[in-house]
Write a structure and sequence with these properties.
By secondary structure, the chain is an all-beta fold. Helix content is 0%, strand content 59%. Strands 2, 4, 5, 6, 9, 10 and 11 form a seven-stranded mixed beta sheet that branches. It has a four-stranded antiparallel beta sheet with strand order 1-3-8-7, with no helix packed on it. The radius of gyration is 14 Å and the shape is globular.
């Protein structure tokens, strides 16, 4: 199986930055896409950003120009650089990876990001 472990969350003031990282362990998953999603209290989980193995990226409109996703395919890891954070970015952030080997999407446990005003 495959496990995804997030790191880098925490508390930051509005306007600040955080860098989230996610690393995979276990059998080589051969991720064809990796991404970040988030879920705020009382809201549904939503896409933040995704990146394919070919390097194509996709961002939610709310984070365009502020967040940047990158991946290290050889290490099956993905990062999310978050700049100019806003209180509305407060949520639990989840890492995901679509595995060609396993034919399914794996999810991390989630990591809290809190932006104070």
């Amino acid at each position: 199986q495959v496990q995804l472990v997030e790191s880098g969350g925490g508390l930051v003031q509005a306007g600040g930055s955080l860098r989230l990282s996610c690393a995979a362990s276990g059998s080589n998953p051969s991720f064809y896409t990796m991404g970040w999603y988030r879920q705020a209290p009382g809201k549904q989980r939503e896409l933040v950003a995704t990146v394919t193995s070919g390097g194509s990226t996709n961002y939610a409109d709310s984070v365009k120009g502020r967040f940047s996703i990158s991946t290290e395919s050889a290490k099956n890891s993905v990062h999310l650089q978050m700049n100019t954070l806003k209180p509305e970015d407060t949520a639990i952030y989840y890492c995901s990876g679509g595995s060609a080997t396993w034919g399914r999407t794996f999810w991390g446990q989630g990591i809290q990001v809190t932006v104070s005003s």
